[in-house]
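ok so i was messing around last nite and threw this chain in just to see what happens. nothing serious, just curious
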Amino acid sequence: MFPRRKGYLLLCVLGCLFVFFVKTEKDLAANGNVLWTAGYVGSTLVWSVILGCVLGMVGTRVVCHIAENTAARQNSQTQSQDNMDGAHGRQKAIGYKRFAAWIQNRSGGQVLLGSLLLLLLAWLPVYLAYYPGICAYDAPVQTGQIMEHYYFDHHPIVHTLLLQGMLWLGSHIFGSVNAGMACYTAAQMLLLAGSMAYGMWVLHRRKAPVAIQLSVLLLGMFFPFHWYMSVSMTKDTVFSAFLLLQLVGLTDLLMEDRRSIRPWIRDLLFGIGTVGMILFRNNGKYAMIVLLAFLFLLFCFGKRARKLWGRLFAVSAVAFGVGLFVLSAVFNITHAEQGDRREMLSMPIQQMSRCMIYHGGVGVLPEDDGTMTEQDKALIHDFILDEAYRDYDPGIADPVKRHTNTYVVRYRSGEFIKTYLHLLSAYPGDMINAALALDAGFLSPFDTTHATVNQTGEKEGLGYVQTRWDEGVLNERGIYKDSKFPWLYERLEKWAENNGYLRIPLLKYIFVPGSYLWLYLGLAAVLSITDRKRFCLPLVIVGGYYGTMLLGPTVQMRYVYPVMLALPYLLGLLCKTTNSDERITKWTS
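result:
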């Protein structure tokens, strides 16, 4: 039985938060600034509570209906299908049951290989259209490190070395650096498709309904962001593949049976996913620290399943240690330079810059009241060089971030913290507005600023899906566009350039980044309410990763892609309700 009282409370709180962020983000986008007066705060809270509670109550009723009536509904559907008048109706019902039984009777190897091949076939035209791949994002910087044999860890060293190996392979085996880039893209596609096929295999082994299995597979084949990201030369795609492997592996471990596969192999797959996510993005380390903390607390204070928590903590700790060891070894071998940690300071950079242009007396905005103290301004001038706060962009920290002197934070941390806290107490509204503006795309499904945050001047290929090459630089290094399907290339470029997903009614919400935070929070709430709290553990990793994004420099599709990729698999595993497909198999046997 669904605990309605607990459900109402939790989902109403979630609804209130949702309404609050949607309203404040809308007001900020419309006005450019929000004045947090008593009247505005009061009206916002009233609307948040009223509408949030309505959403919470509706959501609770929906979940109640699903949780308590699914079996009855399925029995009713089965009876109605069996009693359908007309040969065509009966044939259709029997046809689906036989097809579902055929799917469920496939072996794990058949599902794994079949899913892998179908995914690769669906992505192949895009690979050929963008041959040798989409060399956007960090491609110029990383290929520059490779050509100069000078490495620094602003981009993961392991990813740069992987790219270097593929470029070497192309130039020495195929006589072309461009062929090497194509080899890299093909290997990345295989890794991503392999991770998704593993997710399909676990769904199949866990007897997820056939409708869910097919839906997840078709989404993997035809969701446009999978097309673009599978052929984009970026660490985020590789990171996404390992994160999916880790999350699905952890969910599989939490289900704790001994069917079809030895337990230590599942531990190994979870460990490989953990090591991979640590190697291919710094965010992976911080997400794992959050998971380790939760597992340690569960092991120490949990009343049930302490053996499971201890085992998971041990596996996670070993994988975490292996990942850090490999990183250290790679640094020592390559003599790589430690990068600047200014990325981690994106949020205070934005907040200080906003305070400066609204209160520093610098003449950027007519609203500037010049009330900031000279002491605060002095530290900001030391921290943000060349008056770069004048280039403040609410949606992205990069224009200011690239001109920061992070030694102020490192060696004058006391002064920095004192100034930050003083600004927070003096101008709390501006500090909140800076955070809301930077994270608008994460917090509101109705935000559209995320789609244009990268667009500058008349340069093309800088939509939400970035496809722009720095052709001058890359051509000099032997990497050039060689599309095999120019007509398809033009169509894909037009869709990406014009942010075509925003013009799709309703379905656009599966593309926008702001939907996913609330979907994950809703999933966590439902699992908690239905007393399946242990399955919230994979969401702890997602929460840790979200923490790094919310403190990051901007909203980018490639940052959100890992959680986009993982959600259908987690929903399929955690929300399957009955073993209806087992009844189908029995019916046809």
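not much to say yet. The chain is about 70% helix and 0% strand.
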